[in-house]
Amino acid sequence: MEDSRVKVLVVDDSALVRNILSRIFEEADDIVVVGVAGDPYIAREKIKSLNPDVITLDVEMPRMDGLTFLGNLMRLRPLPVVMVSSLTQRSADVTLRALELGAVDFVTKPSIDVSHTLQDCADELLTKVRHAARVKVHRRNANPANTPTHTPITGARAASKQRNFRTTDRLIAIGASTGGTEAIREVLMGLPSDAPGIVIAQHIPPGFSAAFAERLDRITQLSVKEAEDGDQVLPGHAFVAPGDRHLRLTRSGARYLCLLDDSEPVNRHKPSVDVLFRSVLAAVGDNAVAAILTGMGGDGASAMCALKDQHVHTIAQDEETSVVWGMPGETVRLGGACETLPLGQIAAALLEATSYGQLVTQARR
Q: Distance (Å, rounded) from C-alpha 81 to C-alpha 37?
């Protein structure tokens, strides 16, 4: 009888961490640890002989760093990878780069008391490994950040020079979870420097959200930052919810302002997409457009239905291009999506829904 359990290879330079992760996996009936490796060279040989379904990979490794190993793996023999990362600024930057290179997801470990914290996140780790095992991983370029696949918006740069925003009118709201950092990156890389103001809720740990916003700020035409209380949302600016706060939007006259909320998690998440989207509905109404991207679970789906009911244009990422078709899939199932689109078409669709497309057409004439 064929063994249907998820086969995991644990790659970490710490024997303690390898043992803890192995014990966590061994307690699950549907997962089996087929091997462990203390560095990427050993891991490379074990991948050949053991053929794992999923790899857990430490960010910082001896002999070959985790990013180099991951890049080679995704180029030569793509496999689902879940990164195991420390909660440090350097690790946040490296982990985000790992997601660009093709890692499916990540879990965090502290620099101290690793044993207790890894046990505390056992459910999260098991869930992410199970989801990773179902992901179709494709070969990646060595530098994917420089090769976006969005639909080009011809004339957008010319149109942007003709616009002179004084107040915010239209607004874009984006929500995502697993696979979302890369999906958001691709969408924002398809938007011009004077696109309508953007608010983003991505399920992400504290400390990682600031690094995520800084990376987006460097590689897109937009001004991107981690949201703070009182930030005014203006065209050309995007605000990412902090990893341990809900982001809400409020209106003061003609201005849209960010408000941070330290209340309980909603749908088990903080920040919650549902919280952000419902505040956008209250503050912006049908001047908003919302997109829900790849992610496990159903956070944001009911809010998408509420937005659509009030004539807000709503977009869900399609199943084919989603890492996990949970949040967008639930949105579609509940009837909350006006459109279901592949990731590469969402940036253009957002602009079209905010009437930006009309300005692009004028710029072409």
A: 14
Q: What is the DSSP string of 300-358?
A: THHHHHHHHHTT-EEEEE-TTT-SSBSHHHHHHHHT--SEEE-HHHHHHHHHHHTTHHH
Q: Looking at the predicted structure, is the pLDDT value of residue 157 above 80?
A: no
Evaluate whether 358 touches 152 at the Cβ level (below 8 Å).
no
- Residue whose token pair is 């009309």: 358
Return the residue matching tokens 């379904």.
53
365 pLDDT more than 70: no
Q: Which residue among 85, 91, 160, 177 is the active-site one?
A: 177
- What rounded mean pLDDT belongs to the chain? 89
Q: Which of 12, 299, 313, 318 is catalytic?
A: 299
User: CATH for 6-144?
Assistant: 3.40.50.2300
203 flagged as catalytic = yes
Q: What is the pairing mode between strands 31-37 and 6-11? A: parallel
Count of Cβ atoms closer than 10 Å to residue 297 Cβ: 18
Catalytic residue among 203, 237, 246, 269: 203
Q: Has this prediction a pTM greater than 0.85?
A: yes
* d(C-alpha 22, C-alpha 27), whole Å: 9
Coil, helix or strand at residue 137? coil
> How many CB atoms within 10 Å of residue 199?
30
Given the candidates 3.30.479.30, 3.40.50.180, 2.130.10.10, 3.40.47.10, the CATH classification of the domain at 152-364 is 3.40.50.180
